[in-house]
Amino acid sequence: MFYKVTKQLVKQLVPDGDLLPVCNLIDQDHFRPLCLVRRKPKKAFCRTLHYAKTGFRLWDILVPGEDSTHLDVQDSGPITVVDCVDGTLKGSVKVPVDFGRMEAMGAASTYQVKSIKMKKVHVSPANLELLKKERKINMNSSFIKQLRESRENLYVIYEAVQALEETTFFKSNTTEGSILNEIYVHFSLKGTRGSKRAIIIPKDCVLAYRILPLIIADESWDLSYHPGGKTFVADGATEEYDYSYDGGIDDLKTEVENKCAELSQLSTDLRAKFLKSIIAVIIDSDLLQELKFKLEEAFEDADKCELKSDNPDLEDLLNNLQDSAGSINLFLVDPVLYTLHALEELTEDQLLRLAQSVEKKIVPKQLELVKSILKQEASSLDANIISSLQEEELNITKAMIEMDGVKLQRNGLYPIKTGDMAAFAAFSALYVALYALHLLSRSE
Description:
Structural class: alpha+beta
Main location: membrane
Distance between the termini: 37 Å
Helix content: 25-40%
Radius of gyration: 24 Å
Keywords: Cell membrane, Coiled coil, Cytoplasm, Lipoprotein, Membrane, Necrosis, Palmitate, Transmembrane, Transmembrane beta strand, Transmembrane helix
Number of domains: 2
Protein name: Gasdermin A
Oligomer: single chain
Number of helices: 14
Low-confidence stretches: 84-109, 174-195, 237-247
Organism: Pelodiscus sinensis (Chinese softshell turtle)
Domain Gasdermin PUB: 251-411
């Protein structure tokens, strides 16, 4: 829920800008001005780059000593953002498998009222210039040695957006109907379920930030105003590959096939268990965040992480991501986490349509349609696929696929917008989600 809030705020404050949302409340203190961050591996479907905390600040890697420069963190006046949402999603979802089914029918109502006061804080560039002359990089730091050996780039946060006062965000859900889940363990729940969730954002909580690449040459350092700047320039650090829109799907196709290769090797029994959990997180965005956070922790330190959850929908998945001794299988965690990152890029309505598409067994057709969109070409095959869809199936597909520049008609896909990086990223995430669901829902 916190990430949804920060993403929406960033979109309202700086659409298509370089302001980055903080992903989770627990780590927000590591994204203040002068904190050091590193880039997470880039995915073809992510329009925004993501950065991870390091636990270090700029002065932690400088040679110890006194300096005359006081790094004041200056702030701007207050900014108020108000966003009210009132909506209802209705749908029916059933996920058939060879030996069970998962069914959800009813309506989910949400009402959110959000108002938050913020301020922008930043470090004076003039003070940073003085600090560069007075303090050098400590090249004997074990942190710097590790980064230099791995040729990993480092970034300095120079600006952040913080909450000016404590703020509470509410989200309420009401689900009517029935839920039936039958995979090994059978249970049913009928009636009405209501829930209210709230997240309290504390005063001074960091919501978003801006970064500059840190450049290190011998013991000297600088900040680059070019986004592609490399930290260890003297070592010939390798270029971080950055996907950009070039009209081709080849890079994305190669990436998703490599990332999801382990899923294709699962037995029919395990694919059904994984599918059950993925559908559960598709239906419940908070559950998606919980699972994503657990798996990211596993990647950071598999030896110290335990994959456990009180939610029964995640039990089979988490149990099969580790052996009986608790050792985590990162080769399996990776494709699941990759899929979750793609799902996170989709809207709530798209997620509901995805679950319905699995039930209707139209995921393979939708996968081909999205592939055509990414290739930026309409063909007779598209028209044949669309005409083969029943009216309800077509409506589901339209609701999921139709975005800016793309419309579904009985005679094909028209028109198709070209050269739009935002559209490419959006359809890429949908392609990844459909690909993973297609692998997991196969019966052979």
